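User: Good morning. I'm curious how copper (II) ion would be positioned relative to this chain. Could you predict the structure with it bound?
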Amino acid sequence: MYSAALFTLAAGLIHLSVAPAHLREYVPFGVFFLIVGSAQIVLSVELAWQPTRRLALLVAFGSASLIALWIVSRTVGLPLGPTPGQAENVGLTDVLCNLLEVLSLPALLALVGWPARRKLRRIWLVAAGTLPSALVALAVTLVAVSAAMSDMPEAVNAAPAVAGEPSTSVTSLVATPGDEPVKDFTLTAEATVIDGQTMWTFNGSVPGPELRVNQGDRVRVKLVNHLPESTTIHWHGVAVPNSQDGVAGATQDAVPSGGEYSYEFIAYESGTFWYHSHQQTGEQLPRGLFGALVVVPHSGLAEQHDLTLLLHGSAGHVLINGTGETVHVQAVPGETIRLRLINAVDPGMDGGPEAPVLVGAPFQIVSLDGRDLNAPEVLGPTRIPLGMGQRADLVFSMPLSGGVRLIDTELRGATSPVQTLLFGNTETHLASVAIGDAAAPSLDVDRLPLFDPLHYGAPASDLLATVAPDETLTLALGEHPGIRDGRPQLIHTINGAASPDVPPLVVHEGQVIRLHIVNQTAEYHPMHLHGHVLTLLAVDGRSLDGSPVHQDSILVGPNQTVDAAFVADNPGVWMFHCHVLLHAEMGMTTSVNYVGYSTPFEMGTRSGNMPE
Ligand code: C2O
Ligand code: CU
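Assistant: Good morning! Here's the predicted structure, ligand included:
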């Protein structure tokens, strides 16, 4: 009797907990959940108070109908509601609620068969008999309700205007007018079938077209959205004016299906950059919405070949420029070649970087994240760790004999033993590029040394390495199991909180900000700051003794501590997040907010802006 009552009570509580969300979505459903939840609570009390055969039968019938209704809604779909005839998603909360109802059935039917006829004196016997059901009901209710509460919030503003405090809307932060040469592009986001697979593409290809402009050009890009969902374009690494940053819910509303949007910025900095969707990034980027953006310096390029190699796909299944086959490049001895490596590989949970190796020719790493290094030395075969989002430009000259090959390798973060057991040591496919006709020497590439940006090239004067910061902000990167978006997840945190609850880093225009990033996990976290250039200061307390390193995405290795600094010279609201898509989705996201600036846009289910 008590078990039947407890399970019914728990199901009622869960129904009530999800009623507000249903009310917002579709009022009749919300009302239905309110009625069902309240009825279950009342009936459960009644069951415990005065159990009768008829009551038990009624509750059993009710629970069975609810289970049947749930099965219909999750398989063929209900004929009414916000999406009639469409099956709803199965979630943790609804599964657990139905589990409780299923558990209540045998107890209820037992009551129908053998109703208690006499009062039990031995209370402890009753208590002992009911305890297991009570524990199950309590645990299931807690998990189900917290799952229901963990959904993406309805509306979050990353930098709201505060009444009484003057603030400038980020929408006013646009490219300054001028007569720079204009480069116009149109990127049409559309579904395209490639090798039998439906991809989401810009202009029909994955990667999207390479946008190549000259330093100082005014770049205009028209985004046309032919996808079934809303989207945006973010210019990764480019310090654009804030309103052009392409982050759904922070700097614009996502461009709806069928809509258009125009971006405009001046390419002040030369280098290797890339662009990608910043709406549902974790889903849209892997589906194909990304491409390279190259800004050729004023001075021009000295190399005879300038080749962009975009690494994409997923960890262990890497493609280069759209193919998993070896890419062949023609080159004759003596020619100089620049390779622009961009890592857009979705690394999975451990966040491990790609680590390409160039064999067959000594080479220089002339820039990282598009920013030139000072006096780069010539290197022999070396693995170059590139976190998701990072870039490296290599320069070499074609040897008089023999070919050159770029071979991708990967570094994997240590994850839990369970993950290693589940995913470890699978067959991997890593793409490569053959340059020239001859074969490159074969090497055991996985054993080659790793490039260390701390000790490469020659020192040069670098303001941020010497100046005292106005502010030092500590970011502890952590993780813990929990429930997010209604599912059990490995929650990723910054200073203990997951987005959207991570407090923003608040800065004043003109300040020098030092970041002290402490990785408390065994994973890699390429931390990407929008709109700014980060100067690498130290790794595990060791300072750089070579060239200054300027990046927009800094790779923080397992349990490493990294210090970096930036000048707050580009006002607005700027995302700062781990570029491992899963980590960002699981909460490792915050923003750098300038005092005096606010955004009118919001993220959440109401606006449909979901930047991660
Ligand atoms: Cu490459 Cu916030 O992104
Ligand atoms: Cu990460």
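DSSP finds nine helices and 32 strands in the chain. Residues 351, 523, 525, 578, 580, 583, 588 surround copper (II) ion (ligand 2) (CB under 6 Å).
Let me know if you'd like a different ligand tried.
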